[in-house]
């Protein structure tokens, strides 16, 4: 009964910017944390960024200094992506957790993903 809706993906040139958004709806009373994963064909899914209810954030080394995760309200998250590189090309997935199990990799709810392509 929980649905995550993602938007904002698209095609950008290297060095460009893109902002992804995600909103949760349905039968969920609270969200402990939200995060973004990405996956390219033939590669393992990579945790890109996380944000907790207190506003604490964490980033993969590959995106530090370029990506920023934020939360405007309790059930939404945004991922601002700057200085994009071709290696950032992937399907980006929004995820959330109602408890703290996300800290050990347990994310119960996922969006369908949005394609980000960085190419000249």
Tell how many strands the DSSP assignment holds.
11
Strand content: over 45%
Question: Percent of residues in helical segments?
Answer: under 10%
Report the radius of gyration as a whole number of Å.
14 Å
The succession of helices and strands, N to C, reads EEEEEEEEEEE
Largest sheet: 7 strands, mixed
| N→C terminal distance | 40 Å
Low-confidence spans? none
The shape is globular
Average pLDDT rating: 94
In short:
The chain is mostly beta strands. The chain is 0% helix and 50% strand. The protein contains no helices and 11 strands.
Topology:
Blueprint lengths: L1 E6 L2 E3 L5 E9 L6 E7 L6 E7 L4 E3 L7 E4 L5 E6 L8 E8 L11 E2 L3 E5 L2
Parallel strand pairs: 2-11
Antiparallel strand pairs: 1-3, 3-8, 4-5, 4-9, 5-6, 7-8, 9-10, 9-11
Question: What labels describe this entry?
Answer:
120 residues, mainly beta, globular
Q: What would your notes on this structure say?
A:
The protein is mainly β. The protein is built from no helices and eleven strands. The chain has strands at residues 2-7, 10-12, 18-26, 33-39, 46-52, 57-59, 67-70, 76-81, 90-97, 109-110, 114-118. Strands 2, 4, 5, 6, 9, 10 and 11 form a seven-stranded mixed beta sheet that branches. Strands 1-3-8-7 form a four-stranded antiparallel beta sheet, with no helix packed on it. The termini are far apart. The model has no long low-confidence stretch (mean pLDDT 94).
